[in-house]
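Why should sequence recovery work at all? Because a backbone constrains its sequence more than one might expect. Tight turns favour small or flexible residues, buried strands favour hydrophobic ones, and helices have their own preferences. The token representation captures these environments compactly. In the example below, the structure is given first.
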């Protein structure tokens, strides 16, 4: 079997959405004829961790974990200047560990996945040194990331950092043998704005892993109707589970909810939020006090427990505020069968996926009145006891990660075969 070196900073016991793509790729590798060695960061105290996910790593996968200089602890100027990101301190130790590992166990190809983009710099150096075929995987845009302005200013240091970022990005695109992205708009942008050949950039969407739901939730289907009397005096239970950060929060939902409460105080909703950025959540609760009175923090729970709670909720909510990427959480939301309400940018792929799978509703994120009306419609239908959605199980099944990953393994196979012939 060919062997792959996968460079992924985030990997169990790291927790959160950042580990999912790399971890699930590893679980699919053996069935696709690949052995995998993972080069990952060794988490420190204070990092978001979910040790239960260690049990999902296949026994045949070798994991090499190494630490690095924590630049984010060295002050705001260092954080602002570090390019391509504050994880740059991982580069020297990761590169040394990768070289030692490749000497002991040669590989046929390299796959690096971001964020952080530092992972691509490690792969780029190995490519230059060893000539191994290299696939660079972008889970999110790089310099075209819509949320970077929330973290970068407009001073001289910021402009210098952006200049460095752009050149690092172009060098990675030029030297990688292939690039994969998670959304078609990002693929088009790399071709049209960055001048990459169409055959060099492939779409490999995120997805869900059926194993995460097996024995916990049934296949997606319309919920059985109930008598309206069972809903009398009850709250419609809403769940949000995922990351929020500057510029990317569920504020559109809070704004729509508060607008609705001002118009109809008789609407009884209750929101539970699971997120690690509690400071941002508290800011939203302060800004929308009417909604805050019916919101609770769910605290940290394991991924398996989050999946259980998907099924217990009446409605799942999220924001998809970037047309260049799709929240990975959306695929899990769609699979669980609980109706989804998404606040999106115009022409979002998230909206299209909800429509194709008949899994939920989407409204434009900046139209507060439309959001309030959609939420009101959902609540009134829920009160009647009728199901809110009728998911298409076949369409949902096409979003399973193994289906999407076949394209990535095909690319790696072609690159490795071409290198062997060379």
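From this structural description, the recovered sequence reads:
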């Amino acid at each position: 079997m060919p062997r792959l070196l996968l460079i992924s900073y985030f990997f169990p016991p790291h927790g959160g959405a950042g580990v999912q793509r790399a971890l699930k790729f590893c679980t699919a590798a053996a069935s696709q004829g690949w052995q995998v060695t993972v080069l990952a960061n060794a988490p420190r105290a204070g990092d978001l961790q979910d040790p239960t996910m260690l049990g999902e790593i296949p026994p045949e996968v070798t994991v090499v974990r190494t630490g690095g200089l924590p630049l984010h602890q060295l002050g705001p100027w260092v954080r602002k200047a570090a390019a391509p990101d504050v994880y740059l301190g991982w580069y020297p130790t990761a590169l040394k560990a990768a070289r030692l590992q490749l000497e002991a166990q040669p590989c046929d190809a390299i796959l690096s996945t971001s964020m952080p983009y530092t992972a691509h710099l490690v792969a780029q150096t190995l490519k230059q040194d060893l000539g191994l075929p290299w696939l660079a995987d972008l889970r999110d845009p790089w310099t075209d990331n819509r949320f970077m302005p929330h973290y970068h200013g407009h001073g001289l240091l910021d402009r210098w950092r952006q200049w460095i970022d752009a050149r690092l990005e172009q060098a990675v695109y030029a030297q990688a043998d292939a690039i994969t992205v998670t959304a078609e708009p990002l693929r088009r942008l790399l071709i049209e704005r960055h001048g990459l050949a169409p055959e060099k950039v492939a779409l490999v969407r995120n997805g869900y892993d059926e194993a995460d739901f097996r024995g916990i939730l049934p296949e997606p289907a319309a919920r059985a109707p109930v008598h309206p009397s069972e809903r009398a005096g009850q709250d419609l239970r809403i769940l949000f589970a995922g990351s929020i950060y500057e510029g990317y929060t569920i504020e559109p939902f809070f704004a729509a909810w508060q607008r609705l409460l001002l118009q109809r105080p008789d609407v009884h909703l209750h929101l539970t939020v699971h997120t690690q950025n509690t400071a941002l959540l508290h800011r939203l609760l302060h800004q929308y006090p009417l909604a805050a009175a019916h919101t609770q923090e769910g605290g940290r729970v394991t991924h398996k427990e989050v999946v259980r709670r998907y099924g217990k909720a009446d409605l799942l909510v999220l924001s998809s505020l970037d047309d260049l990427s799709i929240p990975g959480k959306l695929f899990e939301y769609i699979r669980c069968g609980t109706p989804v309400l998404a606040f999106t940018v115009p022409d979002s792929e998230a909206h299209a996926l909800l429509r194709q799978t008949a899994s939920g509703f989407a409204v434009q994120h900046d139209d507060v009145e439309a959001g309030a009306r959609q939420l009101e419609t959902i609540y009134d239908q829920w009160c009647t006891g009728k199901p809110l959605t009728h998911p298409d199980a076949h369409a949902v099944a096409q979003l399973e990660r193994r289906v999407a990953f076949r394209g990535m393994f095909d690319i790696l196979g072609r690159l490795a075969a071409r290198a062997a012939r060379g």
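A few observations help interpret the result. The first helix runs from residue 20 to 29.
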